[in-house]
Amino acid sequence: METRAPFVVVGGFILAAIIAVFGFVYWLNNTGGLGARTTYNVQFNGPVPGLLVGAAVLFNGIRVGEVSQLSLAPDSPRRVNAVISVTPDTPVRRDTKVGLDFQGLTGVPVVALEGGEELIANGPIPILVAEPGAGQSMTQAARDALRRVDSILATNSDSLKATIDNLRIFSEGLAKNTGRMDGIFAGLEKMTGGGAPSAKVIYDLKVPKDFGESRKPLKGQLAISEPTTILLYDTQRILFMPPGNDPSGFANIQWSDSLPKLTQEKFIQSFENYDLAHAPLRASDASKADFQLQLDIRAFQITLAAEPFAEIGMSAKLVDKSGRILAARIFREKKTISAMDPANATSAFNDAFEIICRDVVGWTAGHIGVKTQ
């Protein structure tokens, strides 16, 4: 029994090896790439650098077979004939596009099949013709492109040399006339409104400070609203009538605030100078006030005439806490402008506005002032 044991082990090993070999062959025929195949002839009209028998065949990026044969066409030195073997279910059509793709960092060539709609009729194996330049790698394409560029440069070398000489002469001319060019560009900036913006000159309005000794103190609390006006007067610009004939020298002149806000502030200052103990409130605090002075700007412009003048017109309403109008009046004042320049124009506005402030304060005090014995 002991002498027979080694023979049993050896026989079992040999039987296992035979089974393994048959299993490998079975796998190779069914799943390993040696199963049923359909072959197609492929024709490349150009070199196929690096393509070898056994190279992969891809259809829409999926491996479906391999190259089974490569040969040179005896009737054309530029043509390469190949035979590819693919799985039977690969949807190859007569119009399937054939190309050569290069994969990986080393650029391993594979045959790439793509698309196609026409059905293949029964008969001999069709020939699939690859697209022109299908075997051209990226490196070869770069070489060809550089070769064409070099050819263009060689053909037009004289013209290029002349162009470079002209650019050199032009740059030398610019360098010699830098100062003159700076002057030209500065002039263009002024003409087109470019460059740094000019600084604005700001003017303010003056208010009366001395109202004399015979003043009636105000009774109750007065509030002054922000004057209403049309859009024309809601501005910081000095306005001219008729419009469109603005004199030169006023483009960079403006008031310190928009006219409604500026005149409200100046009327508040005027009443403070008149009776600081009963300083008025702003309209935002009108609910705490016994009286409210409502103003409206009717005119605030320079009228251009033979003798130009600054004109200010304002309407005023004095309203009690219940909303009843106690009094209403329109105030107008004009002052002739001795010379048409910003200084004289704003001086005329100040004179006219100071008179209107005195009149409005006196008129208001006449209605809500405390009578003295």
Architecture overview:
The chain has 373 residues and is an alpha/beta fold. The chain has two domains: 38-135, Beta Barrel (Elongation Factor Tu (Ef-tu), domain 3); 201-368, ABC-type transport auxiliary lipoprotein component (Rossmann fold, 3-Layer(aba) Sandwich), CATH 3.40.50. It contains six helices and 15 strands. The strands form three sheets. A seven-stranded mixed beta sheet has the order 5-6-2-3-4-1-7, with no helix packed on it. Strands 9, 10, 12, 13, 14 and 15 form a six-stranded mixed beta sheet that branches. The longest helix has 27 residues, at 342-368. It is elongated, with a radius of gyration of 51 Å. The termini are far apart. The mean pLDDT is 81.
CATH architecture of the largest domain: 3-Layer(aba) Sandwich
Strand content: 25-35%
On the 0 to 100 scale, the average pLDDT is 81
Q: Structural class of the helix and strand makeup?
A: alpha/beta
